[in-house]
């Protein structure tokens, strides 16, 4: 019978301790979801469990989606006023899903979106997370999208007025911070379908906060938010409003559409708020488990990761003068004129 002969080197190898096989750490559910959402964001595709809901609520199906994307790209290409615009699926789906695949309404909102960015650059351009003033406001925890979604699957955006210093920063800085966070979130397919919940904590609000905004600017900004920003605003909560801020918010809400008015809720205390928003998803300071500073750090990492995309938004361009003469379709009217009228009213 043949026997194998081990060489000295083989003997040594046999007696050497074998390296331990370590399993890669198992992903938590939150980490797995983050990876999935990052992939969805790149393609604009919804997860399989939400496609039926998109079909029922938005009429979305693969054939309609591709047809609608092609029509919007054609609209952009032939538009006499649009000089440059993103045409990737996640961007265009912002408008299609917000308008439930009504092509004329989606194109009209896109036109208005491009228009307000150009008419009010102090609010909607230079969304740089490394801008010293913007970075300071973010670092203070004034505005943060919560890592976990609410019970309806919506992205929750928390604002804390007391963390914004009205003596150091003006309304333009505040607007740019909001615009930057919004742009960070708008390409999320799940949010395009399920919408957003806003939680506004007005504790610490002072009279200088109220005087940051003129009534005219409030009107214009709310018009921009309602008619030109592709977000499905599902619920807005206000809590801890001081007595001298009540009239300001009453005025602001009066400018909203009836549909959005019905989605606004006022709460006297944080305890009252948590009857409607699960405290588990809120920062530790509001009854959750994750400190606000940790949420801010995660936000800063995400903003830096997307910084080039945020700055590249300023490359989009529309000719406001040509826009006034636009007659491509009856469903799209000049927004430049309507905004100028707002300023004169």
UniProtKB/TrEMBL annotation:
Residues 1-30 are annotated as: Disordered. Residues 131-294 form the CRAL-TRIO domain. One of its GO terms (molecular function) is phosphatidylinositol bisphosphate binding. It comes from the Eukaryota. One of its GO terms (cellular component) is membrane. InterPro entries: CRAL-TRIO_dom (IPR001251), CRAL-TRIO_dom_sf (IPR036865), CRAL/TRIO_N_dom (IPR011074), CRAL/TRIO_N_dom_sf (IPR036273). CDD domains: SEC14. Residues 9-30 have a biased composition (Basic and acidic residues). This is CRAL-TRIO domain-containing protein.
């Amino acid at each position: 019978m043949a026997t194998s002969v081990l060489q000295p080197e083989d003997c040594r190898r046999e007696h050497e301790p074998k390296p331990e096989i370590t399993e890669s750490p198992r992903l938590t559910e939150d980490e797995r979801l983050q990876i999935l959402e990052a992939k969805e964001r790149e393609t604009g595709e919804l997860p399989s469990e939400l496609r039926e809901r998109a079909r029922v609520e938005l009429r979305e199906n693969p054939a309609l989606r591709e047809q609608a994307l092609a029509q919007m790209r054609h609209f952009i290409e032939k538009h006499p006023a649009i000089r440059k615009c993103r045409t990737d699926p996640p961007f265009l789906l912002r408008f299609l899903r917000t308008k439930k695949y009504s092509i004329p309404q989606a194109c009209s909102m896109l036109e208005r979106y491009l228009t307000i960015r150009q008419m009010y650059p102090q609010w909607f351009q230079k969304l740089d997370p490394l801008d010293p003033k913007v970075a300071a406001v973010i670092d203070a925890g004034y505005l943060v999208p919560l890592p976990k979604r609410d019970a309806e699957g919506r992205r929750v955006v928390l604002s804390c007025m007391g963390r914004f210093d009205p003596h150091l920063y003006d309304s333009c800085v505040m607007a740019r911070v909001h615009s930057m966070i919004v742009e960070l979130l708008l390409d999320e397919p799940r949010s395009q379908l399920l919408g957003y919940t806003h939680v506004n904590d007005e504790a610490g609000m002072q009279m200088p906060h109220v005087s940051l905004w003129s009534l005219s600017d409030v009107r214009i900004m709310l018009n921009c938010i309602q008619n030109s920003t592709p977000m499905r605003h599902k619920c807005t909560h206000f809590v801890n409003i001081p007595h001298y801020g009540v009239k300001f918010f009453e005025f602001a809400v009066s400018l909203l559409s009836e549909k959005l008015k019905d989605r606004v809720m006022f709460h006297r205390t944080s305890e009252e708020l948590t009857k409607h928003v699960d405290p588990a998803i809120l920062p530790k300071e509001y009854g959750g488990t994750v400190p606000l500073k940790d949420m801010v750090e995660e936000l800063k990492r995400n903003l830096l990761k997307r910084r080039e995309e945020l700055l590249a938004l300023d490359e989009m361009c529309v000719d406001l003068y040509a826009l006034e003469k636009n007659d491509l379709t009856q469903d799209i009217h000049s927004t430049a004129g309507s905004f100028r009228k707002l300023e004169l009213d």
